[in-house]
Design a protein that fits this description.
single chain; alpha+beta; 5-stranded mixed sheet; 4-stranded mixed sheet; 10 helices; 12 strands; 47% helix; 19% strand
Length: 345
């Protein structure tokens, strides 16, 4: 370890033989080992010894290629150094940390009070770094992680309980998920826990995305049925201006696609009022209607200008949004008048 402030911040750089990130499970296991060492409050022994004798200690940790002084300072966690010097072949040094180091160390492992790993990253090819905090910083990180764990658990349980409900508010839940993702990213918590919480939030996100897709599909089916019913009840119209049940742009587009298929020579304009009261329109104009002057983009432009909306598209197909529920009848009237005028009806 290379302590900057041993009571607050530690970092450890190591060679990664596999050249990949340490898994969250491995990081959690490493953290648990250190936490058990902290709880046991083992004494840290230090002794300056002849270099040639110290090198013989079984299990000794030393930096490869490093030139050490003679005599050298030896550190041992939980084991007195004198017996290790007297019997260097003893396996005792392999079950704890024995190393060469001239730096400052704790008198006992319990002095750390608490410990958690907060980051693991690559710093060069094949070289990775673990960053940890101790004492009050570690306690704060662990506490913060527990708070976030409870928040994610509450959200996950809520979503699991209501995902089958037809009134599942995927927009509201999506906002809560994104908010927790941001909070998690900005928080210093145990790194293994951060990965776990991210995975759980991603699972929650998938539920909301699936619910949104299912809701959109259901709305599209309703719009398509509404258009099919209109075509069956009023066939052969010179143009169509039809208000469908509340729907978004995609559902309106699906309705127009059906009209292009079943009434390819009929200029058609669909209107819908969204849940928030805003109007949406989608229209299509075939070649014959365009030749007479009824272009889709101009058709919608004439409508939206009157109600303060915005439109865009081509002469063949266009979409618009704007206005409010109270302006539906006005939009229908303007759309019909515009079409009648262009088609000379």
């Amino acid at each position: 370890m290379c302590p900057i402030d041993v009571f607050v911040f530690l970092r450890f750089c190591f060679v990664s033989i596999q050249q990949k990130a340490v898994s969250p499970k491995q990081l959690q296991e490493c953290e648990k080992i250190v936490q058990e060492m902290v709880a046991s409050n083992k004494t840290v022994f230090a002794k300056v010894c002849p270099l040639d004798q110290a090198k013989e200690i079984q299990g000794l940790r030393a930096v490869f290629g490093e030139v050490y002084p003679n005599p050298v300072r030896v550190l041992s966690v939980g084991l007195d150094i004198d017996p290790l010097i007297r019997d260097p072949s003893s396996p005792a040094g392999s079950v704890t940390s024995v190393e060469f180091c001239g730096g400052t160390h704790l008198h006992g492992t319990g002095d750390m009070n608490a410990f958690t790993i907060v980051n693991e990253e690559a710093i060069a090819k094949g070289i990775r770094r673990v960053v940890a905090v101790t004492s009050k910083e570690a306690r704060a990180a662990i506490s913060r992680g527990q708070v976030l764990h409870e928040k994610v658990t509450t959200l996950s349980d809520e979503i699991a309980g209501v995902k089958a409900n037809s009134d599942f508010d995927f927009i509201a839940y999506g906002k809560r998920i994104n908010g927790l993702k941001d909070e998690l990213s900005e928080s210093t918590v145990p790194v293994w826990q951060k990965d776990d919480l991210r995975t759980r939030l991603q699972a929650c996100k998938k539920v909301t995305v699936d619910a949104e897709r299912a809701a959109a599909k259901k709305v599209s089916e309703i719009v398509v049925k509404s258009v099919e019913s209109l075509l069956e009840s009023s066939p052969g119209q010179p143009f169509i201006v039809h208000v469908v049940p509340p729907a978004g742009p995609q559902a309106l587009s699906d309705g127009v696609t059906l009209l292009k298929k079943k009434a390819p020579n009929t200029p058609s304009l669909l209107i819908s009022v969204a849940a928030d009261g805003a109007l949406s329109c989608c229209c299509v104009s075939p070649k014959d209607a365009i030749a007479k002057g009824l272009k889709a983009n101009e058709w919608l432009s004439g409508v939206t200008e009157a109600v303060g909306g915005k439109s865009g598209g081509t002469e063949k197909q266009a979409m618009a949004s704007g206005g409010s529920t109270q302006q539906v009848d006005q939009v229908v009237d303007i759309a019909r008048q515009f079409a009648s005028m262009k088609l000379s009806l």
